[in-house]
Amino acid sequence: MEEKKVVTVLLGSPRRGGNSDHLADALAKGAEEKGYEVRRVVLAGKKLNGCLDCRKCWSTGTPCIQRDDMASVHEEMAKADVLVFATPLYFYSWSAQIKPVWDRLIPFFGDSAKVKFAGKRAVLLAAAGDTEEEAFAGLKESFRLACGFAKWKISGMICAPGMYPKTDMAEKGEKFLSEAYELGRSL
Ligand SMILES: Cc1cc2nc3c(=O)[nH]c(=O)nc-3n(C[C@H](O)[C@H](O)[C@H](O)COP(=O)(O)O)c2cc1C
Predict the structure, then answer these.
(1) Burial class (CB in 10 A: 0-12, 13-18, 19+), 119
(2) Backbone conformation region of residue 20, classed left if phi is above 0, alpha if psi is from -120 to 50, else beta
(3) Any idea which fold 6-186 has?
(4) Which of 24, 61, 143, 176 is the most buried (most CB within 10 A)?
(5) 10, pLDDT greater than 70
(6) Domain residue extents for the chain
(7) Which atom of ligand 1 is the closest one to the Cα of 87?
(8) What is the pLDDT of residues 99-157, one digit of tens each?
């Protein structure tokens, strides 16, 4: 039997059940209906250090010399056909929970990489309090450039402005939730 394709959702908000989580749930529903296995990784609460720029990737046989929870995140990312980065907009950028995931990808790129993460697809889901779409400009550009670097194909970006309290997406985010659901179905 053919193995199911995997969507790995990296949840970057410290608020469980908040606005970006809701977007991720909607995408997951659509993807599951299309036969994907959806795996959720809750980043908040994990010990995820920043990159040390020590240039010792793989020197101990593992991607990184640091012994924190990133290895488990890497394992989940390795399984993914599609990586979903779900984040609240924090100071026009990534949350502190999800940013180290980007920085600690360094071992998987370049000539010395023993495991490669190239060839995946990626999705950005984000929520922000600001009502202007422009608020996401930096985040979207960061995502676009990072995916280019990683050689990941972008399958979609859904950025929902005007979502501030935790319940906003559930109460008034129908447009974005249905976009996320449709994106999940189209993966
Ligand atoms: C530390 C912090 C920084 C934030 N920075 C921004 C920002 O730069 N622009 C903005 O529009 N909203 C900002 N917000 C609001 C969140 O993006 C907004 O509440 C979002 O819906 C949270 O998503 P979540 O429920 O998934 O955590 C910030 C909130 C916090 C707590």
Answers:
(1) exposed
(2) alpha
(3) Rossmann fold (3.40.50)
(4) 24
(5) yes
(6) 6-186
(7) 26
(8) 999 999 999 998 888 989 989 999 999 999 999 999 999 999 999 999 999 999 999 99
C-alpha to C-alpha distances, 128 to 2, 60, 97, nearest whole angstrom? 39, 40, 16
pTM (2 decimals)?
A: 0.98
CA torsion sign, 67 to 122 to 117 to 142?
negative
Q: Whose CA is nearest to atom 23 of ligand 1?
A: 88
Cα-to-centroid distance, 20 and ligand 1 (Å) = 10
Is any ligand 1 atom within 6 A of the Cβ of residue 19? yes
Length of the chain: 187
Residue 1: its pLDDT value, please? 66
Q: Which two tokens stand for residue 94?
A: 């990534």
Judge contact between 177 and 28, C-beta under 8 A: no
Q: Where are the alpha helices (DSSP H) in 132-173?
A: 137-150, 168-172
DSSP category for residue 76? H
Sheet holding 153-160, edge to edge: 37-42, 6-11, 82-88, 121-127, 153-160
